[in-house]
Please model this.
Amino acid sequence: MKTFLSVGWARALIALVVVGLAGWVWWSMQPEGSIKGIASGNGRVEAVEIDIATKTGGRVRDILAGEGDFVGAGDELARMDTAVLEAQRREAQARLQQARMGIETAQSQVTQRQAEKQAAEALIAQRRAELDAAQRRLARSEELAGKDAVPISKLDDDRAAFQAARAAVAAAQAQAAAAQAAIGQARSNVIAAHSTVEAVQATIERIQADIDDSTLKASRDGRVQYRVAQPGEVLSPGGVVLNMVDLTDVYMTFFLPTEQAGRVALGAEARLVLDAAPQYVIPAEISFVADVAQFTPKTVETEEERQKLMFRVKAQIDPDLLREHLRQVKTGLPGMAWVRLDPQVDWPAQLQTRLPSQ
Model:
């Protein structure tokens, strides 16, 4: 009988120790609600996603990165077919040569019109000299005719010659004015030719920019999540080829009730514990608290119901820390986020920072 009681007490004592040890382990790993001044919530690790997309429509020629590959800013990820763009560039380059020849032609026209003006000005001088001579002859004829020294026919001829000389001067002046107008038109043609050259050059630059953009590059360091398109597919402008995540912009989103969310300050310290790696405690900082509830009861009529409102909170991981452990960063992992509501409260031992070695 004593032996049976001794064995029963021993078993009970062992069970009590096991239960107590399990409870201590559970408390040390899940201290939710047991630490004053610290709130917690379930969350999931997320990162900023970036779509690697085409600027213009076309056919996918090559995809240089696979799912799960780590890429750096500026790395080539895919190439689009550029045969049509290259043909357009050659066509524009031919038009550029033609436009430059147009400048030379227009400039030669200016030179020609200027020479024509000089000739017109010389003709004006000649016609004025002839007019002056005709005027003097007419004056002598009028004087002599008054003395009956010359026949009236001579006077009439000199008068006609004078009128003809004056008309010739007017015609030469009109010709010079026309030459001046032609110079203005020729100079306008030069400006138009230069404008054509600039327009064609801009077209070449635009086509070259489209060719350059046909090589799709990573805008920042990250990891390729998945392919959306395959080589040979034809995409419309803005078509997504790859999707990648920025591993330097990682955070955990979780939810807190009204009373706790109202006490969370932007910049407050946080700690993240992932289900997949509970041995690590990752430091973070609160970067966002929603200003409206994310989900609510059907009706909110009492104070108790208001306390059920949940607000989205974001805990951002330091980018420098992420760069140190870039290849260990994973997104989509669930875990717990802990945020210090009272800055005077110390983090307990189980939430002290513990990071994996590089």
Notes: The two ends are 61 Å apart (CA to CA). The CA atoms of residues 251 and 277 lie 16 Å apart.
